[in-house]
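2024-03-11 09:14:02 DEBUG pipeline.ingest accepted 1 chain
2024-03-11 09:14:02 DEBUG pipeline.ingest length=283
2024-03-11 09:14:03 DEBUG pipeline.predict start
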Amino acid sequence: MNPRIALVTTRDLPVPDADEVMLLPHLPEAELVCWDDPDVDWANYEAVVIRSTWNYHDNLDAFLLWAERVSHVTSLYNSLETIKWNTDKRYLADLAGRGFPVVPTTFVDPGEEIPDDVVVPLDGHLVVKPSVGAGSNGAKLFNGDEAAARAHLASLHAAGKTAMIQPYLSQIDEVGETALMYVGGQFSHAARKAAILSRNMSWETGIYADEKVTGTHPSAAERELADRIVESLPALAYTRVDLLPTPDGPVVLELELTEPSLFLGLSEGAPERAAAAFRALLD
């Protein structure tokens, strides 16, 4: 069978991602292809599904140009419009404007000063990170060290990046972060991710921080919030909703619509469900 689906990765990933290793045996219509391989003829595929393109944040303009070119010759998933919106975490402001609870976030563009009414006091636990990033690249936690936080923000600005300032929601240290996976618009499974920023990070692959992840069952409140968000979105091949706990209920940390790990090994039948959803893209 000639491959009809391209599962898109990057040449910078030293070994295939575990999701793709588990997915391919159930999806003989697909093969792994690198977005940054200039020799690929994307018109040879009926569907191009972005998966482990985790170096995109260092090459965003090139990545979006690639996605636009692909969208002109075949079907790209998720869509170009979705990718353009989702690769910059300013989408959190859009979600908040729609009434969804999100981690309070202040965005500071290069050349801008931190606003006087910033939602996060600089003498508290806070996270400073770029608005375009993946795998915790550029994200740092600060505990009352205003000078260090401002220095990191300045370094992001010097690199031409918009910075984000968020409070550190400490319940993550005890409870963890919940990631809810949807394929073809349907809930598949969930994972519990241990806190990353409050411990020493490791970088085994070099392009994303290593994570401690286990399977879990989302709470009723987590499922209700994630379901509402998914229902508000256009039809997508996959969605991952990352939630953090607070005393008032879960809030959105990230909405992963471009290249999320789906943690397919943490739930029985998850690779098969993802394969069925991606196969349906050919219909």
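2024-03-11 09:14:41 DEBUG pipeline.report The longest strand covers residues 186-193.
2024-03-11 09:14:41 DEBUG pipeline.predict end
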